[in-house]
Amino acid sequence: MTQRRIFLRLLTSLPWLAPFAGLAMNEKAATASERDFLRELGVEPIINAGGMQTMFTGTLMLPEVVAAIEAMSHQFVRLNELHDAVGKRIAALLGCEAAMVTSGAAAALTIGTAAVLTGTDKARIQRLPDLTGMKSEVIIQKAHRFVYDHAVRTCGVRLIEVETADDLRRAVNERTAMMLFLNKSDHLGRIKREEFVALGKQFNVPTFNDAAADLPPAGNLTKYLKLGFDLVTFSGGKGLRGPQSTGLLVGRKDMIAAARMHAPPNGDAIGRPMKVNKEEMAGLLVALENYLKRDHRKDWDEWEGAIRVIADALKPIKGVTTERFLPPIANEVPHLRIRWDQKLVKLSASEVTRRLREGRPSIELSPGDDEPLTLEVSSWTLQPGEAEIVARRLREIFIGG
User: What is the tens place of the pLDDT at every residue in 303-323?
Assistant: First the structure.
């Protein structure tokens, strides 16, 4: 389907884009895809078999998302009005109290935490990260510490590590502002989701769940709010296949209202650098609408097929073994773990990775967790025909040793 047809279909299917219906798509813009920007810039495109990671530019946006971005780019709008309208539409789609688009899930961590700390008090909003006279501690399980909790610490809070429910009970005090939960580490921590939420309710402490990479399954979009978390964030640029620089913050109406006060276009606020433009708001909304109605079974079958292609190609190679697996929570799509016996295949993982990167097309895989002779293939970023290329290249490398 051409970009023009997608654009016209978008205009007829989304009433909120009706004002753009009289605009003709700029022909010059429509043919911009013919320009090879990467060649001009000397940047090598890759086959991404490493997953929806920021360092590999996350996801590839759906054509409908690109069309929404194009449609929104032709008019000015009052940003607060659009913010409110898109948030209201997302909340209606998910059946939650309130929602907003953020500049990624990490930004949602910052402005969500800020919202909990200040509420809608403008004086407090302007003072962050100075927490004088405010609550200043966030409780987190030790097993849930992660590099992106820096986004929470940006607000000036101190993270208090606990391991057990009794530890948490002892840690709660008059300085406790919030309890932070990393969803993908639920299996690592001793306090599981349900108990964590219950403890938050018991002590009247808001709970915030970072579920950035936890789509699919689609049910997760509403699952954690139903469990009782006050705030939840998802990445817009992973499973949703929206703009990579977007995120969803969903939850309590009062907290989302406060979070909006920390976000652009508001000036004197900690979230001012975390700008979301009108095009990204439209793009993420369309991505969410698409995600809620798409054929997830079909997607799954395609991912499984890509993994089988690579596994079948490597099966005859002596010393090389493969294992299909699902991550326990986040990025829960079919993956392939590749292992080899270095006595038979005299290659290190770094050497295999280097050869894949230096070949044409350049290919990225992910290193295995704590296993020196392991690489992992993620299925959901592979485009049609790419599994066969990855399979052929891996065969050549392992056979050539």
Answer: 999 999 999 999 999 999 999
How does strand 207-210 pair with strand 176-182? parallel
User: Can you read off the two tokens belonging to residue 353?
Assistant: 């990775």
Which string of DSSP letters, residue by residue, matches 26-82? PHHHHTGGGS-HHHHHT---EEE-S-S-GGGTS-PPPHHHHHHHHHHTTS---HHHH
* Number of CB atoms found within 10 A of residue 15's CB: 7
Give the residue from 177, 172, 171, 170 showing the smallest Cα distance to 134.
177
Whether the link from the prior residue into 217 is cis, omega within 30° of 0, is yes
Please check whether residue 241 is in contact with residue 248, taking contact to mean a CB–CB distance below 8 angstroms: no
DSSP state letters, 72-96: HTTS---HHHHHHHHHHHHHHHHT-
Strands of 256-373 (E only): list them.
320-325, 335-340, 362-364, 366-367
Domain range summary for the chain, segments of one domain joined by +: 76-293, 296-400
One-letter amino acid of 392 = R
* pTM, full prediction: 0.89
DSSP H or E run through 210? strand 207-210
In three-state secondary structure terms, 228 is: coil
Domain 76-293 has CATH 3.90.1150.10: no
The 10s digit of each residue's pLDDT in 120-151 is 999 999 999 999 999 999 999 999 999 999 99
- CATH topology (fold) of 296-400: Aspartate Aminotransferase, domain 1 (3.90.1150)
Whether the Cβ atoms of residue 336 and residue 377 lie closer than 8 Å to each other: yes
Q: How confident is the model at residue 288 (pLDDT cuts 50, 70, 90)?
A: very high
**Helix/strand number for the chain, H first, E second:** 16, 13
What is the Cα–Cα distance from 122 to 145, expressed in whole angstroms?
Answer: 30
Closest-CA residue to 98 (of 90, 107, 108, 110) = 90
